Amino acid sequence: MRCAGGGAAVPIFLWPILRSVFSVVKMKNLFKCLCLLGLLALLSACSKMVILQAGMTDGDANEIVLVLNRKGMEVEKQKNKEGVTLLVNEQDLSRATEAMNVAGLPRRALSNLGEVFKKQGMISTPMEERIRYIHGLSEELENTLLQFDQVVAARVHVVLPERIAPGEPIQPSSAAVFIKYRPPLDEDSVMPRVRRLVASSIPGLGSEDGRSKVSVVMVPAEAPPAGIEWTTVGPFLVAVSSAGSLTFTLMSMVVLTLLALAYVGVRLAMRNARVAQTIMQLAMRWAARQAAARDKAAAKAAARTAAAAQSLMATMPRAAPAAHETASMPPKS
Known about the structure:
Elements: H1 14-24, H2 30-45, E1 49-56, H3 58-70, E2 75-80, E3 83-89, H4 93-103, H5 113-116, H6 126-145, E4 151-159, E5 162-163, E6 170-171, E7 174-181, H7 187-201, H8 208-211, E8 214-220, E9 230-233, E10 236-239, H9 240-270, H10 273-328
Parallel strand pairs: 7-8
Antiparallel strand pairs: 1-3, 2-3, 4-7, 5-6, 9-10
């Protein structure tokens, strides 16, 4: 459908749809229906949040949030007296549980020697004092090893000299070191320095023979998987790959909504006689202006054609005598 001046109006294929809709729904209830549809759409977009894990530490909760965010799942984190609680959408509960099982999360809580032999009474036994000393020494060495570049995690297990039973030889000191690092790292140059540092910090391992009793295991950390890039489209947080389709969908919905509202406004305005008469007058004026513009353009075109014809006729008398003189000349022998 087009207006009198050739301007584009509502597409023809939308008129049957709009007519069928407005023939079923009464005009007085149209806005109520639109509000109801908007409310239903809002309720369908909102999802119920359920508890995924509760009573967790910040470290364990952050690991789970990192894994689930890479899988494209939204996680809500809440803190309370019992610890950290993680909430996910109800429809994502099974996917989140599966992702956690694959990643081995949450990690099982383990007690270290410092927690097992925590000082509680007034007097400690020699064994408790010895274990707390070993635990403190191990933590100090771990903290020192973490100062190396590219080192992600470090653990040190120390064994001090001890006589297992009376009459038996004293078990010598030893140490085991575990280091996880982020490549690139030259193990051949770092491992001797680590062995020398640990051996110099433990009694009985300062000699060359003592350094051989320090075992060092270095493991490269895996590169983190490529995460999903997120962007915002209006109030929605979506993946970058889906942003284009969502934008097109939203723009289409906005255009259809504006067309529907415009049709409703025209129909409501046409019910008022004065408004309808005013609209008709404006339409007639606009059509008259378009017709006058077309007539004016046609008149200008006719004037240009007449001027061109007159100029052509003016050149005709000059060309005729020249042709007559050429015909009267005798032919050359």
